[in-house]
Amino acid sequence: MALATLILLNKPFNTLSQFTDERGRATLADYIDRPGVYPAGRLDYDSEGLLLLTDSGPLQAELSHPRHAKRKLYWAQVEGLATAAQCRQLCAGVELRDGPARALGCELIDEPALWSRTPPIRERREIPTSWLAITLAEGRNRQVRRMTAAVGLPTLRLVRAAVGDWSLGSLQPGESRTIEVAAPTARPKPHRQRQGRR
User: Fold this and answer.
1) Which residue of 40, 77, 163, 164 is 20 to 30 Å from 106, comparing CA positions?
2) What is the C-alpha separation between 167 and 116, in angstroms, rounded?
3) Domain layout of the chain by residue ranges
4) The domains spanning 1-68+166-185 and 71-163 adopt the same CATH topology
5) pLDDT of amino acid 110
6) Which of the four CATH numbers 3.40.190.170, 4.10.280.10, 3.30.70.1560, 3.90.1280.10 does domain 71-163 have?
7) What is the model's pLDDT at position 166?
8) How many whole angstroms separate alpha carbon 6 and alpha carbon 178?
9) What span, in angstroms and rounded, lies between the C-alpha atoms of 131 and 149?
10) How are beta strands 48-54 and 99-101 bridged, if at all?
């Protein structure tokens, strides 16, 4: 059985999910010094938390391709007092510019024990905030932020806590953990026979 390298990285805030940037912004190269690994999926520049990297093309595809529908758990700090009704609305589905979107799960949670963000979010004293745990099986561009905004809850801070069977655990921003996992085998593409004219 072939093994693949899987790196679990706690991607810091304002870091690109790539290894190079012409504009000089922070990238994965600031935290990962291992050739031949690539991110499996992405995490927005201004989002934090779990990003997976691997040296296996089939595993990268399994983790990131929409058809595999890997579950992703996010902790979202939103502006305003979130309600159970808004959670139900997110699970029932909201309409976004690129089509409907639905959370597999959403619940109100206490503020998780997280690291301090640098820079901190801009909180307004007269407006309270809430924390939601949101589970998705897809990963469209800025999807969580757009979904919470659709129900009147702008996201202030977004942390991805888990992808599939892997979670952040005790990793701090910039820290990573490397493990070996079974590599899926690449499925050969079916050969299509050309049909002759009848």
Assistant:
1) 40
2) 19
3) 1-68+166-185, 71-163
4) yes
5) 97
6) 3.30.70.1560
7) 95
8) 6
9) 14
10) unpaired
Active site residue 55: no
- For residue 118, the model assigns a pLDDT of 83
State in Å, rounded, how far the first CA of the chain is from the last one: 47
User: What does the alpha-carbon distance between residue 94 and residue 102 come to, in Å, rounded to a whole number?
Assistant: 6
Residues of the chain where predicted confidence (pLDDT) is lower than 50: 197-198
pLDDT, residue 120, reads: 85
CATH class for the region spanning 1-68+166-185: alpha beta
Give the DSSP letter of residue 8: E
**pLDDT score, position 198:** 45
Please tell me what DSSP assigns to residue 20: -
Q: Determine the pLDDT at residue 192.
A: 57
**Contact present, 73 and 166 (Cβ < 8 Å):** no
* Res 173: pLDDT: 97
Catalytic residue among 21, 33, 44, 46: 44
3-state helix, strand, coil in the chain (%, to 5): 15, 30, 55
The predicted pLDDT at position 21 comes to: 96
Beta pairing, strands 48-54 & 155-163: parallel
